Fold this sequence. Notes:
It is a single chain. By secondary structure, the chain is of the alpha+beta class. 31% of the residues lie in helices and 21% in strands. It has helices at residues 5-14, 45-48, 107-121, 192-204, 230-250, 295-315, 371-387, 405-408, 418-427, 430-433, 440-458, 463-469; strands at 19-25, 31-37, 50-53, 67-72, 78-79, 87-95, 126-138, 140-145, 150-155, 209-214, 220-225, 228-229, 254-256, 270-278, 281-282, 334-338, 344-347, 360-362. α3 runs parallel beside α7 (371-387), α4 (192-204) crosses α5 (230-250) and α6 (295-315) packs antiparallel against α7. The termini are far apart.
Amino acid sequence: xxxxxxxxxxxxxxxxxxxxxxxxxxxxxxxxxxxxxxxxxxxxxxxxxxxxxxxxxxxxxxxxxxxxxxxxxxxxxxxxxxxxxxxxxxxxxxxxxxxxxxxxxxxxxxxxxxxxxxxxxxxxxxxxxxxxxxxxxxxxxxxxxxxxxxxxxxxxxxxxxxxxxxxxxxxxxxxxxxxxxxxxxxxxxxxxxxxxxxxxxxxxxxxxxxxxxxxxxxxxxxxxxxxxxxxxxxxxxxxxxxxxxxxxxxxxxxxxxxxxxxxxxxxxxxxxxxxxxxxxxxxxxxxxxxxxxxxxxxxxxxxxxxxxxxxxxxxxxxxxxxxxxxxxxxxxxxxxxxxxxxxxxxxxxxxxxxxxxxxxxxxxxxxxxxxxxxxxxxxxxxxxxxxxxxxxxxxxxxxxxxxxxxxxxxxxxxxxxxxxxxxxxxxxxxxxxxxxxxxxxxxxxxxxxxxxxxxxxxxxxxxxxxxxxxxx
Length: 472
């Protein structure tokens, strides 16, 4: 599909497309959509947008200020593979029709403000992000949260707890034991064809694909895509999630990006590789230093480590996120950087002598993050580090699991809960307000929305509490 509005309009006419699906991302990172007849999309629509009522979108306008416009981005156009009728899909940013300006609670519009701010500083002109979302595929999911009962159940044909289950045609015992899911072949890996279809479908929609594989946990998977500039990378994450969920449904299965749906097995994260460039040149490489990192890269890391407790409210935005981030296991909870330690929040991948490949990887986040907000917040933290030349200290290559307790106690860790991250965001968000990227209204609204989730969990008895306390 073409890159310009005229390319898209020509394709609509020449390919006989009758319907246009306009997709946009809400605050929580979910795609919402409106399908319109093709004749409603003309050249003006790419400038002025198409009107809709935003009052029912979670966290958006009140009913008395509900009129909004969806402005489609022609570079994101593709024919939706999951619809029966030939439908052209485009990703939109949200605009206030009264002012013609981007809506300040639109995540995609906020990401553009972040890029504009970066350019205004003169520090860099391009930000590359390489996200790695992980997910689970289940055969059956059931849950309940009522006044007098609470339960959940997830199941997969490959789960180790099903070795003694009576299965149609006989139990063939090709199960994957806990924490043994990294790279097994068929018949233990039951989802090769599903992942391949997911990957190739993403590729057909313009996402730059690389690989696919089973992950460590039971029923856990990852598809690999190449890095891209910030907004395109976030668009790619949204397409990734959409494809994963819909291909899973096609196979009679269900996919989730919930970080920790299984006890005592690995959780799902979204590691994010990132680097800054200027005038076509990478800014993070300097040979002969620790991990060949330039001062710019070290200061960017300094900003990431300093502000991580607060921006985790965006990169790890759910109560379930922190059930994955538990100290003492392999989770990336330690606010240090390292070439080797995967429990460090920031890892420096071994990229060889290529300056263009030099980057850092933030490992603590997960795929329930709204990618536009998460990437923007991390970049703003890194830019703050560069502006203020924040020294991250020395890289830590000691084995964190063998480190003495008194030495380990000196290392800062990420917040232990969503509430802790929200408190950190309340105390430390000045760097997000620079250039008007995040507004005070946006921050306050986000804290209010997410604190309500904290309260929802606080008020409910947990099923395991009955195991621990009922006869106490």
